[in-house]
Amino acid sequence: MIAGKGDPIESVKEDRRYLPARMLNEFAYCPRLFHIEHVEGLFADNRHTVEGRSVHRRVDRKADPLPESEGDAEPDVSRSVTLSSEQLGLIAKIDLIETTGDAAVPVETKKGKAPDIAEGAWEPERVQLCAQGLLLREHGFRCEFGYIYYAGSRHRVKIDFDDHLVARTTKLTAAAREMEQLETAPPPLVDSPKCPGCSLVGICLPDELNFLAQSDKEGPTAAPRRLVPARSERVPVYVQGYGGHVSKSGENVIVKSRTSAPEKIRIRDVAHLAIYGNSQITTQAIQALCRENVPISWLTKGGWFYGTLQTLGLPNVELRRAQFRAAFEEASSLRLAQSFIAGKISNCRTLLMRNHEEPPRSVLASLKRHVDLAHQAETLGTLLGIEGNAARLYFAEFDGMLKRKKGLSEAESFHFRSRNRRPPRDPVNAMLSFVYSLLAREFQATVAAVGLDPHVGFLHQPRPGRPALALDLMEEFRPIIADSVVITFVNNGEAGPRDFVQTQAGCAMADATRSRFIEAYERRMDTLVTHPVFDYRLSYRRVLEVQARLLGRVLLGEVAEYPPFKTR
User: Domains along the chain?
Assistant: First the structure.
């Protein structure tokens, strides 16, 4: 993988009159990578990019001015010099320039080892270096060659700027400038060895998109490779209880409470921070989390949203335009909403078959019919009616999925009679409401991270304060994540009815119960599951991201239909 340097998203902040030379490197490597990073403004780190920035810290530490050419015998050295040219349409931050009189030699640093090939370096690296040489020529220097310093092998490779390389660099620059104007990225590479090491593979989804495209054609289709880790390296952090406090120390956040010892967590390991009740967070911690694009949510003690601090980030403008267009087109909204609801009803039926001792055949058959009816609905109103009928059938049998231990009285056992909320009036409904809020917050952060607007949905129509798109995408996951957490929590005996606080205003979990329940939710999110379409295993939290990115590719026209996650 080609390692980036400096600010990973710096290219979007630069003046679009100029094409960064390092983006020319990306274009030569993979045009789709160039479009996603430079045009769409999306980026993700992996080991290669982090190591690449580490190697560049020395050369980026101090920026020196480019010396005037004075005919000096000894070469002068300048570091981190930025040059641009309107005529070339290029800009570059050159790691190191050695000048002798009016002759200049650019030196580009790479983290890996020099490849054993005749050219001495791969084409993307040679093109990037040549672009730097052309910029030096534009600024009045003679520049006939440059060096690529490979930190892994600790030696320089000389690259001559011959006519062939100059012509190739000029041609690629023109092609890249043309691609800057395209709204949609070019197709992904097919079964390419470049993909596994690319930091953007989880955004690009090359094998998944190719697989979905092949599925519409006759003949065998190659199963997609799992090119991203099964589990995310980052984890959510929950701060609960009276007196909770979050602060920053170095590259860590420190979470304190009155009932436990302080906990130190690396900022880079935090996926999002959820603050419940009256817990506090310092300005320094907020700033540090914002720099790492970590969303921060404030909620009531019972789980109701106050709001979320989402960093400005770099939302993909074209993706949001496509989202808004689809949201205001009834046919597009209906097609997506049908997939969400069909997936939800199918998963409700599967959950009943898995957990109910004797699920009524009539109910299972009716739910199966409702899946077909969802696909046939001609309006959103009709679809919502189908979803409501299916929900009544499902929740009428929900109590049959809750196991009761022998010898316990009615007061010591959980019962579910009907779904109620705002506020929930019994322990099971209290858990359902709380876990739905956890899942909604999860999806709100996920869809924002992939560049979608959480508040513009297709099934759930926009309404002030409602994350409509997050609610859309969570529909198919309500039974298999949220409801499953409640069923498991009850059936494993992790709490009893007496672990809840019952008042005239409603029912809520006690503090200790809520902590155990969040642990149960996190266990579910970390559970590995086989993706029903791609047939590889990954955690439920990773599945949410994959589904959100697939929705984005549907909106951009790269995938014909949204494939809902239907558990087997």
Answer: 10-56+73-185 (3.90.320.10), 235-309 (3.100.10.20), 317-555 (1.20.120.920)
